[in-house]
Design goal:
By secondary structure, this protein is an alpha+beta fold. The chain has a single domain, classed as Chorismate lyase-like (Chorismate lyase). Helix content is 24%, strand content 33%. It is built from 7 helices and 7 strands. The chain starts with 14 loop residues before the first strand and ends with a helix.
Length: 193
């Protein structure tokens, strides 16, 4: 059986974004969590064409329980799960996990199923009817990355993944078909902005 996540042994604990949540976050984290546009574009505005994507996992599988609940998916329903690392100049910046149900892949004319090394934000923010439905935040205090994975220990050390890590997950809709994007901000990203 395929693994559910390259990034996590268990899913993070998410907190619903409510009035006042923003003020509980550190200033440099607020800037990332509440970024209204594409995080990829924000990184490109700073790093230019040096921004790249390493695909860590892309497969059809059953999402985590909270992801299924948020997207109202049946227990045994598969979705396309994609996990990536955004980086620039060898600096790991953002880990991301995307859950795309089959109906969303279909409405996007399979563009989302064949991203390869293209960033997701580059594609979804080009859709004129992209909507943000809701957002949650998390603080992960223990290392999320599966140590036995293809990540080398030096890459884990370089990314400072042993430090607490803030993240957001956003439900987006394209033509009223939803998908879930979770993004986790690594220390190198927070140093710059």
């Amino acid at each position: 059986m395929a693994i559910k996540s390259f990034l996590f042994n268990r899913e993070p604990v998410w907190v619903e974004n409510r009035c006042g949540t923003r003020h509980t976050l550190p200033g440099n984290i607020q800037s990332w969590v509440y970024e209204p546009g594409s995080l990829t574009q924000r990184l490109r505005n700073y790093y230019g064409d040096k921004v790249g994507v390493n695909v860590l996992l892309q497969q059809w599988n059953t999402p985590f329980l909270s992801e299924r609940k948020l997207l109202r998916l049946h227990e045994n329903k598969y979705s396309l799960i994609r996990e990536v690392l955004l980086h620039a100049d060898g600096k790991p910046l953002i880990l991301a996990r995307t859950v795309i149900p089959p109906k969303t892949v279909k409405v996007a004319k399979s563009n989302l199923a064949h991203l390869g090394s293209r960033p997701l934000g580059e594609v979804i923010f080009s859709y004129p009817k992209l909507e943000r439905i809701e957002m949650d935040v998390t603080l992960i205090n223990s290392p999320p990355v599966e140590q036995q994975s293809v990540w080398t220990q030096s890459a884990i050390d370089k990314a400072n993944i042993d430090q607490p890590m803030w993240g957001r997950r956003t439900v987006y809709a394209i033509a009223q078909r939803q998908m879930l994007v979770s993004e986790f901000f690594l220390p190198c990203a927070l140093e710059v902005f």
